[in-house]
Amino acid sequence: MTSHDAPIAAGPQGDSLERDQNTLRSSFFLTNEFGLILLIVLFTVGFGAAASGFLSPFNLFTLGRTAAVNIMIGLSMMVVIVTGGLNLAVGAIGVSAAMFCGYLIEGLGLPWPIALLGGLALGAALGFVNGWTVVRTGLHSFIITLATMSIFFGVMIFLTRAESYRALPPVFASFGKMKILAYFSPLLIVTLIAALALSWLYRRTVLGREMLAAGARPEAAELSGIRVGRVFILCHMLSGVLAGIAALMLVARNGAAIPAMAGQLGQDWLLPAFLGPVLGGTLLQGGKASVLGTCLGAFLVTMLTSGLLLLQLGEFWIQSFLGLLLLLAVLVDKARRTYLARRNLA
Amino acid sequence: MHFASPRDAIAHHVGVVHQERNLIPRFSVAENIHLEQLGAHVLRPVDYAELNRQARRWLETLNLDVDPATPVSQLSVAKMQLVEIAKALSLQSKVLLLDEPTASLTSSETDTLFGILRQLRDSGASLVFVSHKLEEVQEICDRVTVLRDGANACESRPMEGLGRPELVRLMIGRSEGGGTWRKRDTSGNPPVLELRQVATALGHRDIDLTVRRGEIVGLYGLVGAGRTELAKSIMGQFPVTAGTVLIEAKPVRIGSVAEAIHQHRLGYVSEDRKGEGLILPHSVLGNAGVPIWRRLAGLFGSLSDGAVRRAVLPFIQKLEVKTPSLSQTVGNLSGGNQQKISVAKWLAAGVKLLIVDEPSVGIDIKTKAYLHDLLRELADAGTAILVITSDMPEMVALADRIMVMDAYRVRGEVANTGVYADVSQRIMNLIHRAEERREAEPA
Question: Which fold has domain B6-141?
Answer without folding.
Answer: Rossmann fold (3.40.50)
